[in-house]
Amino acid sequence: MRVIYSEDHKLRDARTELYAGQLVTPFEAPFRAEWILAAVKEAGFADVAAPDAHGLEAATVWDRWVAAGFEGEAIANSFPVRRTSHRVPDNIVGAIGHYANAADTSITKGSYEAAIASMRCAITGADWLNAGNRFAFALCRPPGHHAGIDLFGGYCFINNAGVAAQRLIEHGAKKIAVLDVDFHHGNGTQDLFYHRGDVFTASLHGDPMFAFPYFLGHADEEGEGQGTGSNRNYPMPPHTPWQVWSSALADALARIKAFGAEAIVVALGVDTFERDPISFFQLKSEDFIRMGEMISAAGLPVVTCMEGGYGVPEIGLNVANVLKGLEA
C-alpha cells in the first residue's frame, strides 16, 4: 500500500465555518490529516511518499477578496437560487456565491495551494495503479467529493476522486468506478459523470431529505444520456447500522463488477462512524475493517482518496482499519 501525503495541506487552515447559525472553528482542519497519517503509520503502512509535481495555475479569489478590502475569510453569502441569472458578477462577493453550493466553506490564504496539493495526491495514487500496483491511499486534504463541474462547497474545492478516475481513463482504462462511502452524498462526483458511460458512480450516504448536501442523492437519480444507468445512490435514514449499510455496499460492488470496471476509486469518508459529530450513521471501528475486506474482495485495483471524518481521534484508527481490510 503506497500512502501519498503532502505537508501542503496545512496551507489551508481556516478559522471560521458557518454551522448551526454560528461562526465556529471548522470541523475540517489540519489535525485530521495529521491524526490519520499517524494512525496509518502505526498500523504498519510505512510506505509514505509525497505526490508528484503537476501543474499549478495562478489563483485569484483570495487576492481579489483582499484587494476588495475585506479582512475576514471569504465566505459566500449570496447565491443564484432557482430562476435567477446565470451571469457571473464582477463583484468578488457575488462571484464566490455564484460558484458555491454551501456557505460552510470559507476561502482562505493557502486554500488554493492546499487544494492543488490534495489533487496531486489523487493523481499520484492513480499513477501508482497505472504502474501495475493494486492499492494506493491518497491522503487528500482538503476533501473533494462535493466539488462539481463549476462549484465548490462542503469543504471541497477540487474533486480528487473524480480527477483520479479521469487519470485512469486517460491512461487506458475503458471503465472506472467511483465508490463513495462518505456519510454525505458525493454530489460533486455525480455532477461530473452523470452524462458519461465510462465512469460508474455509487454513493452510500445519509438521506438528502435529512442530510447535507440535501439537493442531490436520491435513489431515482440514475444518470442521463450516455450515463443512463451509470449512477447509483443509496440514501439511508438516521441511525443506520452496519448490517443495513453493508447490504448497500454489497449491492454497489455487484453493480460495479457488472459494469465491467477495471479499477475502483474509493471516496473514503469515515464520518459514518457512530460518534462523528456531524453525521448520523452507527458504524463501529471494527466495521471499517470489514468495509475494506468487502471492497478488496471485488478483485480490482483500488485507489482510495480521503474525504470526511471529523472531530474524534478514531478517524485515524478507522482509516487504518479500512486499509487493513483492503490488504487482508
Q: What does this entry look like structurally?
A:
This protein is α/β, with parallel strands linked by helices. It has helices spanning 30-42, 61-67, 92-99, 111-130, 160-170, 187-193, 242-259, 285-296, 314-327, and strands at 2-4, 17-19, 22-24, 48-49, 135-138, 176-180, 199-206, 231-236, 264-268, 302-306. Helix content is 34%, strand content 13%. α6 (187-193) links the parallel β6 and β7 (199-206).
Blueprint (SSEs and pairs):
Blueprint: E1 2-4, E2 17-19, E3 22-24, H1 30-42, E4 48-49, H2 61-67, H3 92-99, H4 111-130, E5 135-138, H5 160-170, E6 176-180, H6 187-193, E7 199-206, E8 231-236, H7 242-259, E9 264-268, H8 285-296, E10 302-306, H9 314-327
Parallel strand pairs: 1-4, 1-5, 5-10, 6-7, 6-9, 7-8, 9-10
Antiparallel strand pairs: 2-3
Helix pairs in contact: 1-9, 4-5, 7-8, 8-9
Key attributes of the depicted protein:
328 residues; globular; alpha/beta; two-stranded antiparallel ribbon; 34% helix; 13% strand
Mean pLDDT: 96
What is the CA-atom radius of gyration, in angstroms?
Answer: 18 Å
Net shape? globular
Widest beta sheet: strand line-up:
4-1-5-10-9-6-7-8
Please count the helical segments: 9
Strand content: 5-15%
Question: End-to-end span in angstroms?
Answer: 11 Å
Q: Which secondary-structure class do the elements indicate? A: alpha/beta
Largest beta sheet, briefly?
Answer: 8 strands, parallel
Helix content: 25-40%
Which runs of at least 5 residues are low in confidence (pLDDT < 50)? none
- Secondary-structure element string: EEEHEHHHEHEHEEHEHEH
DSSP strand count: 10
